[in-house]
Amino acid sequence: MLRRGFLAGAVGVGAGVALTACTSNTPAGNNAAPAPGAAAPAGNNAAPGRPVTIGFSAPAADHGWIAAIAKNAQAQAGQYPDVTYQPVNPTNDITQQIAAVETLINKKVDALVILPNDGSQLTSLGRRAMQAGIPVVNLDRIFDTPLAYRCWIGGDNYGMGVSAGNYIANRLRERNVAQPVIGEIAGIDNLPLTQQRSQGFKDALASFGFSVGPRQAADFTAQGGQRVAANLLQAAPRLDALWNHDDDQGIGVLAAIQQAGRSEFFMVGGAGSSNAMQAIQADNTVLKATVTYSPTMASSAISLARLVAQRRGLGDLVEHEVPASITLASATVTKDNVGEYLPLGFES
């Protein structure tokens, strides 16, 4: 599922600060001078610049979201005639990832986009590239220090939890549900991203006077989701709502719900897979919404690496440089707006 033209498409998933700015909004023929204290837009970032080579490294595609990361990066690089794209073999072995990126550093590529298996363990590699004069766009899993990257772009894990909590709480209020039982199926509990998602969910519910009820952690796989959901459903004879952190593991969660014959509650997913969005569109399961953590961020990372390597900024921003940090917003996808987001979904 190649994602062409995500320079514009990713804006709908929350990369507005980065990508809306990639093209000027000045109408053709508009020669009006900028207001005092403002600067004229920098122009069309899609226009060809000097040729650059962008290296890319990410983990192996053992998960639908990761698979989409690699596809999106390659598709976006293909949009630019001035970009030579040099990916290295994806791997879940940190030592192998370090060795592969070192080859790109030795080739003196113009920029690197790195989604590290582990941000902490690859921080020294990012610093080495930066010290060699190769700007690094750090994708999602962040390095330990800004000295290891020129720009970071990634999703908002805390914001995912907030979006899920707000949707659930508002829907329960509309139904006048008092003292609701709200379940949560998390990802891997010892990961900071899972902890951030859960904290955002808890905080959002608390702002409505609600709290998280039965909660169990899975492992971001369909098999783990099915096993954990079956256990949670057995322990909770009543549920009003359920948030599942990840749409890949949500395949198993939905299977467990159907096997248990439960339909008294509604569910919210996480990440924004096309499978989940198709179920939301069909409206024939308990899944009524998902909150995005879109792999289109890889498309954006390639676009940003190109601009940094060409020493260009974002067209609609006054500053001459690409920002140092860009956090994507987590959109809430429901039956009302699923048509807008479905083309950006990834296959679980």
UniProtKB/TrEMBL annotation:
PROSITE patterns on file: PROKAR_LIPOPROTEIN (PS51257), TAT (PS51318)
Subcellular location: Cell envelope
Domain of life the protein comes from: Bacteria
Keyword Signal in record: yes
Domain Periplasmic binding protein: from-to ranges: 54-310
UniProtKB keywords: Signal
Signal peptide start-end: 1-20
Pfam families xref list: Peripla_BP_4
Predominant cellular place of this UniProt entry's protein: other
InterPro entries per UniProt: Peripla_BP_I, SBP_2_dom, TAT_signal
Protein family per UniProt: Belongs to the bacterial solute-binding protein 2 family.
Name of the featured protein: Substrate-binding domain-containing protein
